[in-house]
Amino acid sequence: MRNIIFPFKDHLPKYKQIYDEIKLLIEQGDIKANEQLPSIRQLADSLDVSRNTTLMAYEQLIAEGYIRGESRKGYFVNALEPHLHEEVSDALNAHQKTEIAPSVRIDFRADAIDQQHFPLKAWRRIANQVLTAKDVYRYGDHFGELCLRKQIAAYILQSRGVKADPNAIIIGSSTQQMLVYLGHILKDEFERIIVEDPGFDGARKAFQFHRFHFETLPVYETGADLSKLEHMKSRLIYVTPSHQSPLGVSMSIQQRHKLIHWANQVRGYIIEDDYDSEFRYTQKPFPALPSIDATRVIYLGNFSKSFLPGIRLSYMVLPQPLSDHYKERFGLFESTTSLLSQLTMAKFMEDGEWHRHLKRMRLVYKRKMQLLVSALRDAFGHHLSIIGEQSGLYVFVKVHLNHSEEWLIERAFSHGVKVYPTSRYVVHNYPDKPMIKLGFSSLSFDEIQYGIELLKRAWL
Asked: Where's the HTH gntR-type domain (predicted)?
């Protein structure tokens, strides 16, 4: 251990506090047997005490057998008797031993990606190249690197029909972070917002941060009920039209035109979160809303679902008036996103690796989706309905059994399977039967099959 730092209390001698701290670290196993301690001078300097104070603490530890001094080498931790470790462990963890939770064998989480097919070699190669460039050794552009904004502009034009000036694109670390920043400028003109019900709870939390008043747009398995808009006071709406979060339904081209007409009529804005439009399996995606009319649409996208959640890269395309306002408000704020990640992703896209990655993953995820749906139907038949199988990295299953959401989740967990609730997404529009969320992107084909077998044992 190179150093130890902790705050002193007033009522005890400092050498005694140093002794107690090191003794506890040794007993808890935080400092291992034969690990070297800081020298007397190092420890005295880091704790801002005299060397005599440190020496007295070490001498006490030596006297009690916790450490030893070796000539010209320093101080080292002695191995403790096994029973002492057991006593300390029992005291620290007694509350954890009252109940042993079953191990999770299959986790149907939706916030992870397929690791086996991740383009690690290509990403590492490009990242290493970027690290040799001069540009990486500086602070980044406040609104995102221009090279990445240009690549994103080209990509969303090709894939989503969105014509965007790179200067109107803002790079951020996550959808929620961008919604929080966006809320700062929107609340100057708007005090309420329409959100989907059920809808992405993370977006609601971001809007709650600015105390927006909510109106809810009901969404069903057949789609959103846009007829409700004419009875609402809000002029701002947050939607996920390409793959509704969480139900997975898509907004028809007629509904998209109707929504844009509404925004123009009330002189408001649509916030379109296009969070995973890359993965559609049964038909080509409808164009994004800004491809129809960009004047009243704020367009959001990210690389978390399509590439890697940990890269923390999202982007936002703003209409010109909002773009100017945004840059004026946040012109002195540093970027929230890694410069290295931005430059690497820009080069990754420029070299064609992004296109190859998406093409490969569409096929992988399509096959996984097909397997999941087939396995669910074989296992449960009429006992459940599957929602959202046309796109995305998860499905909802509506379970036609006389059991609650909580019971279904607990029963699955008792059989080693982790599944996820959907009630968290609902404001008022609760379904008639419990629904469970099953993600599949990070699971192998065998794991998907095995997970459904375990669910069948748990629920039927």
From this structure: 12-80
